[in-house]
Amino acid sequence: MDIQRLNTNETDFWKKLDKRLAWDSESDHSVIETVNGILADVKSNGDKAVIEYTNKFDRMQATSFAELEIPQSRLQEALENITAEQRTALEKAAARIKSYAEHQTMDSWSYTEEDGTVLGQQVTALDKVGLYVPGGKAAYPSSVLMNAIPAKVAGVPELIMVVPTPDDEVNELVFAAAAISNVDRVFSIGGAQAVAALAYGTETVPQVDKIVGPGNIYVATAKRMVFGTVGIDMIAGPSEILVVCDGKTDPDWIAMDLFSQAEHDEDAQSILVSPDADFIESVMQSIDKLIEEMPRADIIKASLQGRGAVIQAKDMDDAIEIANYIAPEHLELSVDNAEEVAKRIKHAGAIFMGRYTAEALGDYCAGPNHVLPTSRTARFSSPLGVYDFQKRSSLIGCSADGASELGKIASTLAHGEGLTAHARSAEYRIK
Amino acid sequence: MDIQRLNTNETDFWKKLDKRLAWDSESDHSVIETVNGILADVKSNGDKAVIEYTNKFDRMQATSFAELEIPQSRLQEALENITAEQRTALEKAAARIKSYAEHQTMDSWSYTEEDGTVLGQQVTALDKVGLYVPGGKAAYPSSVLMNAIPAKVAGVPELIMVVPTPDDEVNELVFAAAAISNVDRVFSIGGAQAVAALAYGTETVPQVDKIVGPGNIYVATAKRMVFGTVGIDMIAGPSEILVVCDGKTDPDWIAMDLFSQAEHDEDAQSILVSPDADFIESVMQSIDKLIEEMPRADIIKASLQGRGAVIQAKDMDDAIEIANYIAPEHLELSVDNAEEVAKRIKHAGAIFMGRYTAEALGDYCAGPNHVLPTSRTARFSSPLGVYDFQKRSSLIGCSADGASELGKIASTLAHGEGLTAHARSAEYRIK
């Protein structure tokens, strides 16, 4: 297969790498216009507008909003409709995701100063969260678990899921995952109209405080636009994997790990970095050998040829520098002493340590979240976690003595900023 | 003064309150066009474009970028130029902000499962952070401390501050605050061009990973537009205070606390809630009495009359319900047992407990950050903190046994999602 080959020895290596990594996430003008119209319509006309868009875009025949709500009994039914093996797999995955998430819970804290002044931070859960789940082919039950379980661990009392069911096509695994995750309400709506319903509320859909979950360009654009009215999670770009390998892993394993990212869609990005030129050749041979067995071979080829790369590094230090520059969503350290190497990684969404730790294990069931920062945003952002469904309030309680002392400092600084009322308010509290 | 009076007994109370709280934060079309042009120009032309915009908008005469960098020696000089009282106040405030921030630092953690599989979370600091500080009249040295100190406590190695100096006008207190906060580099640039320089990097200005700090509509719009390329803090709306008082605090104190928010600008919002009708009248009298002494009386009047309100609640439970609905940036609980009442507050940026705890003390020197979520966004967001300058990477290290067990679950779920390469990648690791 014709995959771009790079070598860190080349003088224009970083320029070529930058070009390979570049991804423009901006929505085009026509998408923005369409979404704007839908948002305004749902804000004004509520349920009625959502029904109309749903009938139009998802080819449904709903006459009342009640038909678009999926009752809990239907979710329970889905649990019966899937195979026992699937149900066990979902339940085991859910238990592991929950167990990991419980380690992330933030607690309130406070401390008292000598003069009796109390300072602290009070942690509370969000009241209502909306979870967007894509319908049709891109419906991933694992995403329901990964988004819903941390919210429930955080203590969110009301979790509302929206999932389009175009042509009334239902994904039993998605409904089953919703049942296992204790989602509170489910509506079979999608697109920008579902985002609008959650952001503004309608007669039937409760207004939420934050909307999470992946979606197409219309959903992503709508989320970006309602940000501020509600919170949103990150806007995800195409999924990526960077495999750093010392050359001692079975090349078939590495080829398949690269495929597992590439099969998501044509824009997904799989990159291999290794200091071992012979190993890189072996992986290329494995790729050519294994590609024929893949049902999604066309997508994998388009992804690897259009956005993939194999990079020959000088040594492991060089490979680590590249990993930190790329700040990948998924980083596989298929090397000896992976835990030690991981300590040198500054930027990555998730770090998969050692030859046994295939990224696919993390996608489904290892425990940590599979919603991760893409497109180099791991430089400044984190995986989805319990902390995304909690927030903090500062606590300040001054004793009479404390207020008197702090009042003097505040008065000086307030006068320096020309804010007399601030100064006076502080001075009232000086003894 | 003619301030809107509301009573929770009124049938249309919530509708009236919503109207009073409404704030449209969207940028208008012409601002977006202007900012778009500046961003594109700086991205293409780097230093040269920034110099041109700075000379034009800030009426400067720079011929090289070197003239726009403020050396550390100049910051140290500012420490000498301010009064000893100001320097002590800044240093005391800085020490308290640092001490509180140190309580917020996140640590890495991991745990090992029975089969040897390791799961965890690795916490790292951001590499480079840009700090926007407004110039001219709105220059607040306290904001330099509040933004810079948490970044340094997080361990950010390179903190780059930009502050416009229109007509070469310099704010000595701002420079002194930069010296005290250990800011690494300072450039005298501002506006959308400064945001662009930090987001894309120029020949002289390093590209940062996140931009924080307040600014005017052009700065806010630019930050919103570069989000994704870099991280940003929240886009702040006008500042607000909600005072909940049981009627037992000196009405002059409460009037001045309301003024201290209102004096920021005409759009600031000060609201008083009390179950005590007589007390509300006393505060109104204090307002009329004290307003005449205020240098910024015009701004205070415009703010209180245009956006302020006094609300009579049925009782304290009712008052708390209103506070949770408003989710105010600043919440003063001027009541008995304020610490107990605070536990019932679900949504607020900062909670000021007790009659002595004037909001102004928190603005400057109590310790907790004064950069807080506005416009009801405390429903889903938090004060600026050390955690905003750290990020997390998930850690997954499967043992051979662990990978084998997880591989089975992943294989089942991957086949259910139609992702064969995921399944095969997991199956390679099954014993």
What order do the helices and strands come in, and which of them pair?
The structure is a homodimer of 431-residue chains.
Chain A (H helix, E strand, L loop, with lengths): L3 E4 L5 H9 L7 H29 L11 E2 L1 H10 L2 H19 L6 E4 L5 E8 L2 E5 L8 H14 L3 E5 L9 H9 L4 E3 L3 H10 L9 E3 L4 H10 L4 E2 L7 E6 L5 H12 L6 E6 L2 H14 L6 H11 L1 E4 L3 H11 L3 E5 L3 H5 L7 E4 L5 H6 L25 E8 L2 H17 L3 H8 L4
Parallel strand pairs in A: 1-12, 5-6, 5-8, 6-7, 8-9, 10-11, 10-13, 11-12, 13-14
Antiparallel strand pairs in A: 2-7, 3-4, 4-15
Helix pairs in contact in A: 2-7, 2-8, 3-6, 4-5, 4-6, 5-6, 7-8, 9-10, 9-11, 15-16
Identify the notable features of this structure and list them briefly.
16% strand, Rossmann fold, 15 strands, 431 residues, globular, 16 helices, 3 domains, homodimer, six-stranded mixed β-sheet, six-stranded parallel β-sheet, alpha/beta
